[in-house]
Give the backbone structure.
Amino acid sequence: MRYLPLTAADRAAMLATIGVASVDELFHDVPVSARLDGPIKALPNHQGELAVERRLREMAERNVPAGSVACFLGAGAYRHHVPASVDYLIQRGEFLTSYTPYQPEITQGTLQYLFEFQTQVAMLTGMEVANASLYDGATACAEAVMMANRVTRRKKAVLSGGLHPHYCAVTETEARFVGFELVEAAPDPEGTEDLAGLVDDATSCVVVQYPSVFGQVHDYTALAQACHAKGALLIVVVTEAVALGLLPSPGSMGADIVAAEGQSLGNALSFGGPYVGLFACRDKFVRQMPGRLCGETVDADGRRGFVLTLSTREQHIRREKATSNICTNSGLCALAFTIHLSLLGESGLGHLARLNHAMAVQLADKIAALPGVSVLNDGFFNEFTVRLPRRARKVVDALTARGVLAGVPVSRLFPQDDRLADLMLVAVTETNTEAQMDALCWALKEVL
Amino acid sequence: MATIRFTKDHEWIRVEDDGIGVVGITAHAQERLGDVVFVELPDIGKQVEQGGEIAVVESVKAASDIFAPVAGEVVAANDALTDEPAKVNADPLGEGWFFKLRPRDPAQLEALMDEAAYARFVEELG
Amino acid sequence: MNAMTPPPTSASDDISAVGGPGTVSGHRGLQLEEALIFELDRPGHAGVDLPPVPDVPLRLGGLAPRARIGLPDLSEPEVVRHYTRLSQKNYAIDAGIYPLGSCTMKHNPRLNEKMARLPGFADVHPMQPESTVQGALQLIDALAHWLKTLTGMPAVALSPAAGAQGELCGMMAIRAALDHREGGKTARRRVLVPESAHGTNPATAVACGFTVATIPANDRGRVDLEAFKAKLDGDVAAIMLTNPNTCGLFEPDIVEIAQAVHDVGAFFYCDGANFNAIVGRVRPADLGIDAMHINLHKTFSTPHGGGGPGSGPVVLSEPLAPFAPYPYLVHTADSLRLVESAADPTADGRAFGRLKGFHGQMGMFVRALSYMMSHGADGLYQAASDAVLNANYVMARLRDLLPPTFEGPCMHEALFDDRSLKDTGVETLGIAKALIDEGFHPFTVYFPLVVHGAMLIEPTETESKRSLDRFINSLRGLILRAKAGDTAHFDAAPHFTPRRRLDETQAARKPVLRWKQG
């Protein structure tokens, strides 16, 4: 039992100090019927590192790592190269094994990186302020809608047909339990929907995704103006943060709140989590924001320092009147995001974004040249929608057998809409090689 | 001459000659809260019942609701507090006022504590 | 005086103010001042080398590419040094005792980290075909088996991202079950929450569309059974009860409470934040609960990471199980698969919805399972025993100087308050800040809210007797110092930290939440 430092002699001495004969006496408030008389027999006993590692490796080896094959999967999670120093730095025990910075004098490290993170997120999204992160992009989206409801004192949100279905589903769940109305536009693979027509005087917000879940990029300036004319807010969701290194910022288009997934900077795919939700908005809404905020101040000697602030919004003070029940943020994932973005910097992020985009353009052209296949988008970042002459799920399965993770069948995201069954999302990042892109095209040609 | 009345929730209301009531929190209340960092004020025109939640005052570690001392309509809010919430600590009965209210039922005023009664009330709280 | 010197490196050279010799650089030995990353900008540098961009025209649907963002440029060594210096300003469980009550700061084994980084777990895309992720699903299934067996509960929902979201999940399942049972929409409005509860409980109940009714505690720090029963009727949807409770005490009437809740047709939500006290020794199912979240970052050692990420699986009773959210795992003849939405042919539509993107905190699942397998049933039993033993030892060794708020024995955390310091002018906060100077992370201060000047000490099983003795001896010394009237020491503490007390009033009055170009 390598994690337990007490020796038998320690335990005996401590029991004597306490004045009881056994630890069992300390559990005397537990009803007798609920006390177990020893370790649970249905579970194995303790094991050494070697044995645990062997067992877990067996499970890991039953999976196909994305990096071991040609992988073109995106749809809200992106495989980018994470510099080695990111993972080294986040594993420093002072970051990894500290708690929420409740004692600011001995957690300035955490507080300063959160302040840097907030600044980076605000810059990237083109907004004025950002919080210290939420769980993930989908929960950030739902929180953004609820915040818009508070700000506008209205209860009806319009969701774009280009919004990731998981983001819609999380927002629907909140709508059902909190009690607000959703108007959901039909899936919009062609990028032709007109949301301005759905905005009325009861609308709190319109939620669009940029690029859309189908990869399409749009200028939302006119939509923002239409929303504001009716007193509604525009929420822009971003699932691929690297795109903001090339595309105009949501803030420059008039977005009021940006809710984004930050996984693609610094964080592994990890089968869907943990990821990091980015949340930014206009200055004037700051007191309606969910989640933790880090702010600058001075210490008793007048030196700059950082603290958690505006915490009267939060559950531990406001209890049933809190802006959200959220307690944890995604601290360590936010740190990974911040370090990766610091390594990239202005020039590196722009370069990375252009590289992703150019490679995606090249692959889109190659795929569009295949007989019977077309690419739906006229503008995209690093992901686009392909129309296949057959059901996409079957094609994806056939390509998986050939060692190519070709893309996400749209039917997995929109299973209820059979008209989308022949569509596939294809994402390209700097981790893909030209040989992998050729392999994808060859394999597609073969199975079609 | 203006009359000032107090509530058990530590608000004061001073009715001016024009019949409008000015509302704030007491010196005792601001002392207990500590440094006030933010005040959320009501919209002008808002109708409120007696005892209804109408504003919020925040310190670093606490947020307290402000309740309407009497029913009425909000006719003004002290926007200066947005930039300088410290006025609530510095001058709670003067520049630190929160909002003005047109009382609907003058009888409600009479039922509130006068200055002496409020002083006794605070003393009893210990 | 250099009070006018602008940050970032303007450490004061006022000797009396910093309690030590001023330096030319502003650094003080190993305490290195560090500017914000934005202030270190060296335009044109980069910490990465990327291949050239293929020369193809942009295809952005007519959008012009973005102009300058404002991010700083730095080389790799500059970035590594910056974040290394920041890390050195943090206290951590790796460095010493971190006895934050209700937070369960226990050792974070590095085996967990190594396992979570295996490519078969870390480099798996959530939208891969199920045939390529059978090992990941197997791991989720194994974790579910451990959690169900340890709690005695028949089902577990794994997707919640943190404890607070686990609470939401459990309460949403409860409301969905009530809605289903009571013809589509339950008329029950109220959720009973003890006044000592963690703030997430009332916030969660409201987020699920309920109103909160508070149950008072008795003078022994437990639920007042009579007051509780008086509030219980057909309008009650659920009780939310933390057990062991936030005062570190086990609720002895819990079985009777569960029975009474069920008798009026309501459900029992147990906040499992303090599960570490009883894991492997008591199965919550045997107490009569219906739902309980488990903070993997507390009981099962996944790192707190400066405030997340968490993971909050929720175990559910038979009546609640069908309402667990998407996605959930099902066994087929020869494989495992995920049911991701109501459109799945096997779904019966009772699942209440979806709580987050994709499938849950996989990286945390690997770490938690690694911990469980390492400890095993016997190790977990011993860990809970040691956690409770350590807390009671702290209580026993302090009680003559600092009377516990409630008579013991306690469970995994010992609750004190500053009543006995009443005439010293020193309060809980001063003791906490002085502990920092002594080299310890303080206990939790001013929580639970119902105890004036609360000091909640949770040592966890990670601490050796020697470590506990050092902490206790220092705390005893401080209490004696307070009682001797040295209030100035406490008012000015901490003296030896990278920053001294920070002005939280200024931070909140004029919020500065980001750096801006000066």
Remarks:
- The first helix of chain B runs from residue 27 to 33.
- The two ends of chain B are 32 Å apart (CA to CA).
- Residues 1 and 17 of chain B are 7 Å apart (CA to CA).
- The beta strands of chain B are 3-6, 11-15, 21-25, 36-40, 47-48, 53-59, 63-67, 72-77, 99-103.
